Amino acid sequence: MPPLARGYGRRMAAALLLADAEPETRGFLERHLPGDGFELVSAHARFDLVLAGDVERVDRWLERAPVIVLGREQADSVDRIHAFRRGCDDYVSRPFDYQELVVERIRAVLRRVRPEVADVVESGSVRVDTRTRVVTVDGVAVPLAQKEYELLLRLARDPERVFTKAELLQEVWGYRAGARTRTLDSHASRLRRKLRAAGGGEELVENVWGVGYRLLGTLGGGASL
User: Fold this and answer.
1) First-to-final CA distance of the chain
2) CATH architecture of structural domain 120-215
């Protein structure tokens, strides 16, 4: 079961969590997935997809990312139906074909949850080049910290939509639902100040009281913290 061509893997790069206690399967995937462009991360980091070996414990991951179950060798249709009823996105029986797992299953799930995005994201006066991570407001470069950049990019990809604080904390920081922290508010405040300074005083990031945040582009009129 050789790994895929390296070029394909890089185009598919994503962060994966291996939640599989079976040593042989885990060791095989740990050897091959990084070579195909996948970053293997811990449960404390942000991840795009989970490969789980225990159907009964998938609930802990479903709030954070899609889940593909790697079923036991003796699994039957009842096991597969049970997994899907628990909310899993796909079910692959063992022994599995590596290329099928990566090309067909992982690719298909990521395509559903991570649609292709443009290299340049623009919203009014704000421009984000995702290749170089350069952010400008009316042509003026704005230096941002990593999480400030990720927060802006998430808002800019769906401008004027109000994102709840829970959504942003989960998508940008990987926090679980119900987390109580001022991290988002402090980052949003710094992001607002930097964009305002580059844009000549225009308020771009609006705090929608009691809900969350949105990017106003050139509309202005945002509320401050």
Assistant:
1) 54
2) Orthogonal Bundle (1.10)
